[in-house]
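Appendix B, Record 12. Input sequence as logged:
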Amino acid sequence: MSFTTLISTADLAANLTAPHWVIVDCRFSLADPEQGRRGYEEAHLPGAVYAHLDHDLSGPIIPGQTSRHPLPDAAVFTQTVSNWGIGHDSQVVVYDAGNGSIAARLWWMLRWLGHAAVAVLDGGWARWQAEARPVRRGLESKPPQHFAARLRPELLLTTAEVEQIRLDPAYRLLDARSADRFRGENETLDPVAGHIPGALSCPFAENLDAAQGFLDAEALKARLAAVLGDTPAERTVFYCGSGVTAAHNVLAMLHAGLGEAKLYPGSWSEWITDPSRPVATGPA
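Logged structural output:
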């Protein structure tokens, strides 16, 4: 059996030494971009390799054109995945500090490359530590593998495509940022506040319980169905500030059994690079 959405700490612990399993540590802080790497070197899950959001999970920023975390070139990222020791038969488990907001980015990116056997560790590093499970120090690596990408471009929308669908009632465009940022309040990351006109607020943090683990599948289904209405997954599009945390909603929706939604990787920080694009503030 492969894990394709979430995996529990118990299930991962039972497979720590399983062949063809690859664990990737994605811990990262926007406030201190090297904090995650330092934390990894101090202690991490046994066998885990490290993925840096800025260096490994993003491409070069082009001022005035791209988001804060543009997707890397697919060929470049395919080589990165190969260097981590991921092959076509690998079961990949990704984790971050706890809530899955960074790990979900790598989860989505591997699916974008056509690799479905990837799961986010529910509760992440925080839960693993709280349960006093084994850890290691220092740097780790795995022998490189040949990863053959089968790119799935249908999983994402470009800015031009978002412009076309944002007011179409057949689609749902959903903003994964906090509700105050959606309304244009307390914006600290981007130079323009607000949201894409036509979007609805759907904060990714509401996928989580008090312990920062995912809600169960039925609770996720009820939460998401309330904003989706009868819109199917293939016409549901999530975005956020820079295309990272929106993947958390894609993951939650798939785990809830509602299908695989689309991602707008450019998100808000790419949308606002062109001052002619409309901006809305306040509630939807």
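Residues 222 and 256 are 9 Å apart (CA to CA).
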